[in-house]
What does this fold into?
Amino acid sequence: MSIWEKLTSIPREVIMGLVVIAILIPALNPLGLPLMVGSMSENWYDTVDSLPAGSIVLFDIGYGSGGYPSLGPGNIAAFHQMFAKNLRIVMMATALEGSMMYPLIMAGVKPESNYGAVYGEDYIFLGYIAGGQTAMAGVLGDLKSLVSSDYNGNPISGYSIMDNVGGADDIDLVAYMTTSGDTAEGWVYQAYSQYNRALLGGCLSMMTTSIKPYYDSGQLLGIMDGIKGAADLEFLTGHPGDAIVSSDILSFTQTLVLIFILVGNVAFWMQKGGGK
Amino acid sequence: MVSLDPQVWIAAFLTIAATSYAFRDNRVFKLAENTFIGVAAGHQIVMGVKNIRDYGWSHLAQGEMIYIVVFLLGVLLYARYSKEYYWLYRYPIAFLVGNGVGISIRAGIHSDFIVQIAQTATPLVASDAMGTINNIITFVGVITALSHFIFTYESVHQGTLGWGPKIGRWMILLALGASFGNTVMTRFGMYQGRVVFLLREWLQII
Amino acid sequence: MDYRRDIPLAITFIVGVIAVLDYYTTFESVTNTFTVIKNWGVVLQAFALGLGAVNLFRIHGKRISERTRDDWMFSGWLLLMLVLFVVVGLGTGQYDASTSYQWIYNSLFLPLGATMYSSLAFYMAYGSYKVLRARNFEAALLFITAVLVIIGNTPIFPATFPVFFHIREWIFGPIVSGAYRGIRIGVGIGAVVLGIRTLVGLETGYLGRR
Amino acid sequence: MAILTPNRLVPLAAFILAWVATYMAIQMGKQGKIKIRRMPALDAIEEIVGRSVEMGRPVFDIIGMGTFTDIYATQTIAGLSILSYVSTLCARLGAKLYAPQASVDVLPVATEIVRESYRLEGKEDEIDIAEQMPYLSGTQFAWASGIIGMAARMRPAGNIMIGPFWAESMMFAESFDRIGAMQIGGTARMYQIPFFAALCDYVLIGEEMFAAGAYVSGDPQQIGSIAAQDWYKLAALALGIIGALLATAGVTIIGDLLSM
It folds into this structure.
């Protein structure tokens, strides 16, 4: 077996083992590299920053355990900015596990101790609403005809934040974070096309290319581009967290992937070119 | 000092079990897989019942008797399992499909078609040279990618015109490469979160 | 008029047309009617959430009773996990807001959901090594931008050579915007035309058996 | 009070025209006036089924986890057309087909289609629906693991994945490649197209999948709607090109018209 054949047939377990090592080294001793903020994240930040205090934001926790490692830190950073700006956040979840993310995100943000925010006045969580786009259109169309109690089961009429939130006209900004294409496109259809609301979208970075046409045409004002966008938001809001920590691990693991691609292709071509 | 919280220990065990599949299929992974299937279906029921309570029963309790019809339609979804009355399940499914398709395509023609054409029908020349070059590349990308998806006019794919779809396929492949690259970051960005959990909350060494 | 097929098709058509009218007209009555339809849709979707579990009980229940395959104990464990979540979730009466439900979610569902999804990183690494080849011209095109974007996403490179950051931003400019807008226009009209066929009853796969 | 919602006249016109175009195109389809060009990936389907017969190994046809009520119902329908074509080929050539299912409301339709294909080929006894078309799971990764487990056991010679796919597409493409299966990937879910393009032998990009579904099914409805979509794409091309040139010359009539 020539050197090139060996190089194209490194056993799976060795490849996997190298990946584990490439994660552990930076995790155990971080490098703390500088961060270059992308334009899409900057637009997300500026859009929220331009809102006057007291504005109502409808935020959809549209992800679950599958998106938590990368969208969780981004969600925390986004909420830090919104609470710091004294915006009023009406949270909902179109993802089945979205309501399970809520306590984890709140533990990361701690709005009461950090910003003196009061549940029911500064923010409220309506919980999971089934139906995907039907839920979005239901909340934006006539919220009170659909929703009567919040996540904890208490009537929303008892909370001052909901006094004048009846539908899209009372909402100044819609923002979502999701791992699902249905949700990413669904909010463009229901929030922007139907009610012309300002809209921000956070998604896994693999989804960014396909929702970029909405950003180019102004239907999305900003995009949080996965863990990279989350790190940008953590940096811009001055709340470093897990996303920035991940940058070092991404440096090592993706350098390893580049080496694999190089080795795989060089060996492939050498074999093909008679280097047997 | 290793964590003493049983919740962290169970989560750590399942994290390792779920990762083990990447190395080799094994019975510990099968346990994790079946746990995953079971808890996911259980969670669906819990959230389903809560939603039925919050968005259905609450209306009934306020005297909106029409919701009895909605509950009946909901139950009919389960008629699909009966040999004789399976067709009854078509009534709720027909309602959901009409609602789902209608709510989506009514806006799809607007934001996925009309708005995108309007965005293309914009000036190619920008204030600076680089801006103009970028506009032209974007414009060529849209037009040739679109021509690649013409299926019933063979003439579009032949002769000089045929260069359109050919270049279109190349532009699409370049864009797909960018998406592939971003997906590498997505996966590693997620898995590092699990390793940080194992090191920070389980073994507590970082 | 076959009440087994024609009435459901009529329901799909009527509900779909009301959804479209709600978007394109300003009639108060249409908007109110569609609000009712949306509110009903949420409840029906909630009912549909139980279908998966019923199917699992049928399949895994059969496996346990017949002990056909050697892994029937896994089926037993699966149903046990399902029942555990249902009992804790419904038993507390607080559903997902109850701390004991959150405890079993954070112990069982969160680590599995987060790891299953992310363990794809290993497939990515192996796939990049074994399969991502610049075998021909077309594959080379995808290969070039993939590598340049990975470099741009690897913080150590843009931090030392900022040009890599700008190359990535540029690729996500004209290259991605142009091609993906073309793809999205095509997919958009494709979904609309097929959606129309569904509403008018030409596409009836969803009705199931003849 | 305007009856029509402002700034949506053109989308409304486009939407109504789409109903008319679809109806007209289907009539032309019925009269055989429309021909869809043949995609190379379709020749590959026959190559794969033939290969699996020669190697005496099964062929997988996976239509994805879509349902009839989600935004991707259209892709599930195209996947079912391909499944019908593949199962007919398998019945005719004697290849063993595996088509595991993930969606409770698609399962009865898919099994009906395969049973119909085998019945038309007079080979109804050669298909064991329960064993060859099992319901694995409605949950993404349990579904993916189920498929990969089946593939590891069955060692298929070919794998056809046409329908809506999510993150599991990467796991499938890599795992089936490891077993040495020849693969066709096709989806209109944009996030997953890169994997099929990078890792499969043939790829149907975006709506080539709908065209393939129409081509193999020969169904005038599907062929007609492909034609209606082409008319709209040609209109988009014309408006885009003319609009951009006029706008460059300072005349923004097309852009203004579209946002009426």
Notes: The CA atoms of residues 111 and 117 of chain B lie 10 Å apart. Chain B touches chain C through 116 residues (CB under 8 Å). Chain B has six helices and no strands.
